[in-house]
Fold each of these.
Amino acid sequence: MKKVTLLILSLLFFLPNLYAASGESVDDIINNAMAPATALMERIVFAQFSIGGYDFPYIVAWIVIGAIFFTFYLRFINLRGFGQAIKILQGKYAQEEDKGEVTQFQALTAALSGSVGLGNIAGVALAISVGGPGATFWMIIAGFLGMSTKFVECTLGVKFRQIHADGTISGGPMHYLDKGFSAKGWGRLGKFLAVFFSVMAIGGSLGGGNMFQVNQAAQQFVAVMGGESTFFGQNTWIFGVIMAILVFLVIVGGFKSIAKVTEKIVPFMCAIYLIAAVTVLVSNFYAIPAAFSSIFISAFSGKAVGGGILGALIQGIRRGAVSNEAGLGSAAIAHSAAKTSQPATEGFVASLEPFIDTVVVCTLTALVIVITGTHQSGELDGIALTSTAFETVISWFPLILSIAVILFALSTMLTWSYYGLKAWTYLFGKNKQSEFLYKFIFCLFIVIGASMSLDSVASFTDAMLLAMAAPNILGLYVLSPIVKKELNHFFAIAKR
């Protein structure tokens, strides 16, 4: 711990020297260095095909088609399994002898901390800024469909998890792709897909699970501290260094330490955020019907970006996928560590995540933005747009949002550091030296993310996260019969 802390602190002395040598600000140096890589990743991941005169990313279609398939294949498990998920969280099927590192509630809050937060607060604002209010409708649809995908991937996560001698657990797509395909005689393909997923997961942990989070937290912090002309406004990398140190102090304790933090932060901050959102809606209750009407009409009218329905759909599904992470496979890594002997139970619990973070939180955020009309100026995006919308009713909300954003960002980075670490150890082995190297790289990217522009960070984030869906959903198709078997087995036990 001392070594990585000293390495991070050394940036305080190293980066100013770069500034003096080049004449550019530290933030500009970092942003300019990352821009080419970001542009390349975006071109590769968001390769597109034309439909109705609009460019539709293949990866977005891949996620949507998969979610629709799993919803029908499991006979709308996203709806009929909702009550069962609540019962499982209440401990109805828990057994003392169940193996795992954390409780099912801790696994849920840890996974939620990776999705609920800035993906909802800033991501919704980005979707509306680009796709109009109608993008919200398609985000909600993505949330409902994503519940089925989450069920499949998290059931497989527990089914194929690896329990180490020290009691720690490794699971997720890299394991069920490897083991599941090997069981079918497709070992080489499974290994290739597992390695590809791991590489993308590491990139996703550094992008969406890291840089985007700290970037938006830094923006909100700077806004509250007086704007870009202030010291922190010109040196956001210092904010990144502070956050990097805080993150490392927690992740050094492993997943149990992370889960203990997220199970406290996530419910508390969600409650504060939701209360604030309801306050704004109540203050503008007369405008709620018009807001819903605007969202629905915009989703099916030519007012959406580019002059058509597909513009809103693409932005809504894209932001929805990034928000709830259904199809990416990330949540399966956290849920694999839950204490359970029935894989399907974790599938039920995980299916609640898209409902909470996309259907509930995203909808409330969108209503606040649309009702207050702040999206119509076209001058704001991301966290700034959301903050301004709340400020129209709660003048001191930007301060509260700053605290919430920092805590949400912190909890998300904690969870994604674990996701990335598990992908890293799958590739390079489970040993202290390897884990230390990853943690240092992760903390370094916190500093980088705090200094980059929103456009660059958002593009890199979406590219790395959505790339994880390519191998993961292919694996879900192939292994879905195993999920159905586990689901039937669970229902047989539940009826006894």
Amino acid sequence: MLSGEQIQSIVTSQQCDTYAWYSQRAWVEIDLAALSHNVRQLRQLLSDKTQLMAVVKADAYGHGAVTVAKTVIESGASWLGVATVPEGIQLREAGVTAPILILGATQTREQIHAIAHWKLQPTLCSPKQALVFSNTLEAMNFDVALPVHIKLDTGMSRLGTDWRQAGEFVQLVERLPHLRIASLYSHLATADSPDQTVMNLQHRHFEEAIQQVKILGIEVPCLHFANTAGTLTNPALHYDMVRVGLAVYGYYPAEHLRHRINLKPVMQVKARVTQVKNIAAGTGISYGHRYIAPNNIRLAVVGIGYADGIPRHLSNKMQVLIRGKRIPQIGTITMDQIMLDVSNIPDIQEGEVVTLLGTDQGEQITADDWANELGTIPWEILCSFKHRLPRVALE
């Protein structure tokens, strides 16, 4: 018999073994075959000289960074992108050896030490940051040139040095000791829009920045510009590498890009029925009685709630799948539980599996469905599921 401590270790681990999966009230399934399929589909869009960076920041958009990283590398990605130093360290500790780019800004002494130790590759956003890196590595007696990636702001107005200063920025970094330029890159702000005006302007800015560097006679080994939407929109944006996040996980950044590639959602969210009961007409359901039973109904309580990542604003708006049927959620979504009207499944049993996101007998509910209902984006939905839901990697 497993102890409570052993059970807790299982259910909070990166992957969930068979015992934890079947004993849980709720969990997230990660379809590794779909993940591999998406990477292969993306590779088919790219020329042989263009590398694929899979963005696995935010725990691989909630899918489990270590499992995803290993799978995408096996399937054709050659680089990984993370947002923070700890995210990179997590992958290294798990034995991931592929090059890892830290997309966020880093500049403290502790971060620089960790980057050098764990063989991570930082983004340099400004000349000041470049000087901090060089001076810190000098103080460390670092005897190897650290690969660094220079970030330009071509119109995103977020991280990066203004593209007009690309030449002097690259020249500075090239002259600094202990640094080696690994790439020059920028990020698109509106690539998911059907109107490509801003995207094309950014593209021109990036091209002009590249020319500045060429005039100086400096060779930059890698140029990258396209995010998921840019990758799907225009091959001219591919350069030497593309950085793909959302499409890796089976979703399109915009409706008009669906025709470009065949993607499969990787994540499914499931939970179990914990109680079934009869409710009389006129009875209020859940906090605030925001739903009143219009007639006698069969009610099922399901063990998942907003503490697990189910948006409370979906109360009385969402559906789930049971036995391939769409079932309405009723009443206020609570911290740990939701309620369903299962009147059309009179023989439903406690312990039966409910699909909140995913496919059941041909019916499908996706993160896009939730995002559209909430007026948000699928990125936010995928990243919202908490880690008390074990991730179950399915081969």
Amino acid sequence: MSTNTERPATYGGWQAERMGVIGNLSGVGFTLVAAAAVISLAPIYQRSWSALLIALPLSALLLGLAYGRVLGLTADEWLLLAVRHQISVATKKNLFLSGAFAPRNPKTGDQPMDLPGPLARLRILDAADGQGGQIGVVLDPTANTYTAVARITFPGLALIDNERQNARVAGWAAFLRAQCKEDSPIVRIAVHQRSLPDDGAALRAFTARHTAEGAPNVAKESLAELMMSAGPVATIRETYLAISLSAGRARLAIKGAGGGQIGAAAVLVRELNAMQGSLSSAGLQVTEWLTPRKVAQVIRTAYDPHSQLEFADRNAAARDADWQGTPPGVDPALAGPSAAETGWSVYRHDGAYTVSYQVRNWPQSDVFATFMQPLLRPRQNARRSLSLVFEPIGPSVARRELAKEKTKRDTARKVRAKTGRSESEDERREAVTAREQDRARAAGHGVARFTGLIAVTVTDYEQLETACAELQADASAAGIEVRRMWGGMDAGFAAAALPLAVGLPERRIF
């Protein structure tokens, strides 16, 4: 008997982006500090001591807005969110009514898009997959991106030996590194997993195949009642992979493919077909690239969890060759909720309530590849959705960005040394990590930006805070720090609960 002596690989070195103009101050924060300095110094130059009594409290207020923290945000960010939310509530823009409830445009007679808030601009297109079938492509006209969504399966990491575990993770790393090329048309790669109540279809099919024809009717009735009660209690997981193509980066290829939306969809399909080998090497099996109706169903079931079992039964019936009813999935025009309301701390949609979180800090120490398992732990009282969104960066941009990052950190260290301030261990480790990242890039490794978003959905409002507390406890067990997305729950839902490759902010360059 042979034994596997290979040690499991560990991972770490994630770095938070430095978005500040000076230090950790944003552009607004820097403006507030500058305004505070001018307001406090002006009365001194004018020798107006009475004006100084007014200027000092005002300067203190501006400095508090720049450096203060509220609910994990800077005070100026929190104030901006609060004002924006109150304006939205006052103008009723936080409410969404669809279908028969939606007011028609008085000029054209048209009703608004069925998707609310930040998703209203999206369109679901139909494109040929090159093999005689159709796939759904989500068009974002604002970002000028085209996104395809695949349902995937994977063998997992928990119950395999270290050698195969390391090989599968290395395969996924190779897939991401392959997208880190100059002017790559692929701008977003998102992995989305959600936990759902088991519809019981597989259990019913197995029972139908293995039930003897001569079994007593009483036994059949008892077994049917048991399946009806036990099936929905179980939990299943669905995993999706979303790939986004930038029409701006691929404009020449799109022009060569015929131009317009048809050309963009053709280029996207070509890129998807080229990825099949890399995905297989990573242990990922593409079950299907979702059609427009399947994409709409994924969106619809996120907004209305009660519809999950209904669609599962209907889709199972549609597999029958003699089926003449509604085809699998949902009409894209009906993908959104019937009604939704964006609150400060919760998003209410149809018969469910969702709270969204953003991962603010990843583990500080090296961890194993399975460190996120606590976040994916199934819960019967809540549905969880996890989205990891990646942005591959080309070699030249990565070299420039990492050099800029190193310069910022080295300059900050020199300033601290001149002022006599001792360097903390966190700052020292960040500088070491920045150098290691640059060395890895120079050795041929890819660089990618990424973020993590989590959504907790319940159908009973009384269970919401309990479900949130359980998530935060599981995040702590994984070594991850999460923050509730106060004042942006509708945008958080779109990023965390839907596999549409959104949620990663644009890279800011100052």
Amino acid sequence: MALMPVTEAMAAILAGAEPLPEEMVALDAAHHRVLARDLAALRTQPPQAMSAMDGYAVRSVDASRAATQLKVIGEIAAGRPFEKTVGPGEAVRIFTGGVIPDGADAVVIQEDTVVEGIGITITEAAAPGRHIRPAGVDFRTGDVLLAGGTRLVDRDLSLAAAMNYPDLAVRRRPKLALLATGDELVLPGSTPGPGQIVYSNGYALRALARHEGADVIDLGIAADTVESTAQGIRRARDSGADILVTTGGASVGDHDLVKRSLEAEGVTMAFWRIAMRPGKPMMHGRLGGMRVIGLPGNPVSSYVCGFLFVVPLIRQLSGRSDVHHRIETALLGRDVPANDQREDYLRARLDVRSDRALIATPVSHQDSSLLGNLAAARALLIRPPFAPAATAGTPCDILRLPS
């Protein structure tokens, strides 16, 4: 099978991936959940004109000149409106958030007044509307302020509360099962035997999936046998996973059994090699409603492919409006050679020059096993297939890595 271009692989993975069903959650539980539908305000904010400062509610026509004296006829606090109308020559003491009384159309802040018995003398003239928040200045009933597909951040929760929503309709979180494969893998804290290595891929991938809003099931490490790998696949299916991610065993060696195991369990394979670096031996298929992505075993390849392909799939199943990573433009920090037929994703550091230009400098060694360089990188620098050599200072495309 020929190597599949990255864009075609992405299209195959996302094809038919509809947003998951919605569910109602309490507002406090909605942080980083994805809205299932547009949210329209249930109330007007503020519902009435209110004072933006502590001072005195007045008729601007009475307070158009400094040294004017006014009689104070009452007091207004937030939540305690004044029932009377402000007449000629009158003022009402008002505090921030207090409702502007009938007859008044301005607020003179307390710093611009001198209290004298039951009255005040203003020291700065008032203007109509000054220091008043008009009714609906924030929003009005029916205004759509949060769109369906929005992943809710902390400020969105405050807005939804002000719109008078105690609960929100959000998409169900995608359930992602992660299965590692390989006799050579041991857990952190173990003493590796001859030829063994410490398992690291899962820790980044699980964190990445959770960061994107998925619920993660850790299926552990399968031995290099078809039966052990197939057993893990069955556990993922039986758990109701929306996505199964495997790591390792995706190449073509005698001990790379993942593709064979997936097909034995009925997975329909869409592709198993991509024209990209790192990550050529990557697989995708489906088992009923479960989408399967087989990542390479090398830790950098595993992470880069997880970032590029698993993250958009999680986002699409979550119903997010921002499914794809945002490509930014930077300047090359050093010369890079011409590229071959595979699309390159070079790990790169990011710096901001004195003129505020963003500089992307590929790390010195791009080997797909070097986790130190991956950890030092802040972006992936994209080099298209057959891109010519480029010199430092040339514009380039980058994808920022999660921080």
